[in-house]
Amino acid sequence: MKDYIEHYITDNECMDYSSQSAFFRDIDDYRFRILKKLLHSRTEKRILDIGSGSGKMNLSDSSSLFSLDISQTNNESSSIKAEGDINRLPYKERSFTSIVISQVLEHIVNPESAIREMNRILMDGGTLYITVPYNEIIKKHLCVHCNKLTPENAHLHSFNEKNMTDMLSAGDFEIKRIIKFENKILFSMHFFSIFRKLPIDLINFIDIIIGNWYNKYNKILFIAEKRASGSVGRAHPSQG
After folding, report:
1. Which stretches of the chain are assigned E, i.e. beta strand?
2. Is CATH 1.10.238.10 the right assignment for the domain spanning 4-16+43-182+219-225?
């Protein structure tokens, strides 16, 4: 897939995020509310949002938020914006205290390479927040243009606790916490849309309680810390 960068740029620039259905906007909001709460509970003040899209990770406090995407056309946040490829991040080594990469790794041809590159720009002891689809069964459809099987939603990988733990460990990260969220029963009932105005702690609590009975989720969050001795990656000229 040599032209995947051009393909993603085109998709980003053509995508009208405002046309997304209210249901899926509410699903996205639930994910970002979880991430924002975790970030607000810490002292990190130099945060990078990789695959920023429309800029929903915009934070209301005084944190220095940087956003990177293959194209920044639709990013409406007040973050410090940059365009670039996750495999060659345009930042110096140890530039950030935290990195958020949400619903991105499943689209990357080589996620192991991306994790090593994120390690390079994180400070020692820095925190990586990753969300990915959980135990996804990737469906393929015949493309009408190339007559080849093409993965649905451009998802190239399926993730679970085992393969993500192995990948992060190989990238010199230590997992500190794993959170499964967006229970499939609640998802099918439109719970996250109907009760979107409830406090995030209450929504998350109900998500967990239902999970004790029906342990099937759409997404999973990994919080990992860069090992202080790590020196994975290589230097690139800085653009930010």
Report:
1. 46-50, 64-69, 80-83, 96-102, 122-133, 140-142, 149-151, 173-183, 217-226
2. no
